[in-house]
Amino acid sequence: MTTNNRQQTLTDLFLEVLSEKSNPDMQDAIARIKVTLKIPECAELFNVVLINAMGYKSNISRNTVECAIDCVIDRNKLEIDKSNLYETKKERQKQNCESLCHSVRIWILNRLKGSGQLIE
Predict the structure, then answer these.
(1) pLDDT digits (tens, 9 = 90+) for 1-57
(2) Interior angle at CA 71, CA 104 and CA 44, nearest 5
């Protein structure tokens, strides 16, 4: 199978099944995930996470993880800016998102390093 002239990845299959099984409320979130995953570093990190969840190991570079997390932070900030919230609430949400993403970054990097999957 191919998607946009490329091989279909595990992530493509996962999102396809998720889309088929989701309710209308989830469709918007899935669409946002698909947009984010058009960025190669985000797609690679998501693929590695899925492969690891299946019990296999896949290597990934520190730079790819860093770029993917930065991408997620930026995308979430854009989504928050588009919302109808007051500016102070937007700023608080952006700070919370960034803090959470930095914690996730540290956890992912430590986990990958500990399992020998992180390419320095």
Answers:
(1) 444 556 777 888 888 888 888 888 788 888 888 888 888 899 899 989 889 888 899
(2) 80
pTM metric for this prediction:
0.79
Listed in sequence order, the residues at least 6 apart from 50 whose beta carbon sits closer than 8 Å to its beta carbon are 10, 11, 14
β-pairing, 6-7 vs 2-3, is antiparallel
Surface-to-core class of residue 94, CB atoms within 10 Å of its CB (0-12 exposed, 13-18 middle, 19+ buried):
middle
Q: Which two tokens stand for residue 26?
A: 């989830």
Q: Are 73 and 65 in contact (CB under 8 A)?
A: no
Query: Closest Cα to residue 77, out of 36, 34, 105?
Result: 36
CA-wise closest residue to 77 among 62, 98, 60? 98
Residues 117, 48 contacting (CB under 8 angstroms): yes
Region label for 21, one of left (φ > 0), alpha (ψ between -120 and 50) or beta (otherwise): alpha
Using a 10 angstrom Cβ sphere, with 0-12 exposed, 13-18 middle and 19 or more buried, the burial of residue 69 is: buried
